[in-house]
């Protein structure tokens, strides 16, 4: 399948603010880009675009602090289309009883109060082509290619998180490297800076009570630390806290639909139960330096290669 897209975009990249505990929009750097995307097939995607580049300051901020936020990176129509894919995923989940592969996506199910809970959908794009299109979008892939120092990316994650009100889904304190490097032979740090960038597109307003992302500024410089090997959505879970970790340092991310976070594999982060009255959905796309990953991820077409020209 070949899809050609050409459009002018207005992108706002916001370096993080460090003061206070609640991050929201500050001053923006306004970047205009001319976008022209060519999507190939599911295993190899070539993008041929012009400029959407992080500044040297933003790249420094990413590695020093652990994350950067791009405000309104995706527009309301795009967010609506992504949500519609999430609705489809929920329809599929409604008809299945167990964790497993369905239509190319891997559904991880749980239960709370005898109700089925979708903990996450791994390689959500396997059943939702539009999510694959978003995963190959230059607004995600060009910054990631800069951060990884490579114009070839391996897309490991296309993951849907739903967090319905009070559904018990939590992601306790961790670093993503725990989920990438699972022991000898599974991961090589090719670029010497972690070799992985996670992006997270916010689909519903993220508020203090909707189970927002929490980050520890500067944890990106810790390297890998020990948060213990845990099923972090186990209600009895008590995380191991490394000596560098102090709860008081946590920063809460407030965000609007379309805002997008980029964070590194050593950035300590968590998100807890959604106690609000509304969904807190996010779409995660994660990219590795080529040659870093040696594991197979579930989902049809997972671990595809993306070339960023
Ligand atoms: O959906 C969330 O808040 C969890 C995000 C997260 O912890 C992760 O992607 O590693």
Give a concise summary.
By secondary structure, the protein is an alpha+beta fold. It has five helices and 17 strands.
Explained architecture:
- β6 and β7 form a beta hairpin.
- Helices cover 17% and strands 32% of the residues.
- The strands form 3 sheets. It has a 9-stranded mixed sheet.
- It has 5 helices and 17 strands.
- It has one domain: q2cbj1_9rhob like domain (Jelly Rolls, Sandwich), CATH 2.60.120.
- It is α+β, with helices and mostly antiparallel strands and 309 residues long.
- The relative contact order is 0.22.
- Bound molecules: 2-oxoglutaric acid (AKG).
- The site of 2-oxoglutaric acid has 9 residues, from β15 and β16.
Keywords:
nine-stranded mixed sheet; five-stranded mixed sheet; alpha+beta; globular; 5 helices; binds 2-oxoglutaric acid; Jelly Rolls; about 300 residues
